[in-house]
Amino acid sequence: MKSLLSPDGVFVFAVDTTANRCIDDTEYIPSVTVPFEDGTALTLKTKNYYEEKSQTQFSPGIYELCRNDELLSQEFMDFQTHLYTFGEMEGYLKEAGFSTIKTYSSFQKEIAVDDQCKFFLFECRIS
Predict the structure, then answer these.
(1) Which whole number is the average pLDDT over 52-77?
(2) Which residues are bridge partners to 42 per DSSP?
């Protein structure tokens, strides 16, 4: 991304923090269902497991297409998200060559002081 920025460009992005981890589930739980006009419905069922050592949120999911109570098809997904601690991403950004890095704990640009917020918003410049 650094190489794509103009000299006065700004790279802005957000990442989830360890405070945003999900509660561990043992069973798949329906999280969203989308009904269609033809009587079918697509449902996403997920469960969650957080691995402390790697800071990885594992969220395997199953998409199920059903008509009434008949299962027409399934597709399994393996969602994995690394959750960041305060200071972790900043080190990567410095290593990548960004010289000015601001870390916020909200879209209102409150300066982050720890990783108790649900996400970090980064504002990075090369000069």
Answers:
(1) 96
(2) 34, 65
Which CATH code is given to the segment(s) 23-81? 2.20.25
Distance CA(71)–CA(73), nearest Å, equals: 6
CB 125 within 8 A of CB 98: yes
The greatest distance separating any two alpha carbons of the chain, rounded to the nearest whole angstrom, comes to: 59
Query: Which 3-state string (H, E, C) describes 14-83?
Result: EEEEHHHCCCCCCCCEEEEEEECCCCEEEEEEECCEEECCCCEEEEEEEEEEEECCEEEEEEEEEEEEEC
Contact 92, 105 (CB under 8 A): no
What are the backbone angles phi and psi of residue 100, rounded to the nearest 5°? -120, 120
50 closest CA partner among 74, 72, 23:
23
In the chain, domain spans: 2-19+83-125, 23-81
Which pLDDT tens digit goes with each residue over 38-49? 999 999 999 999
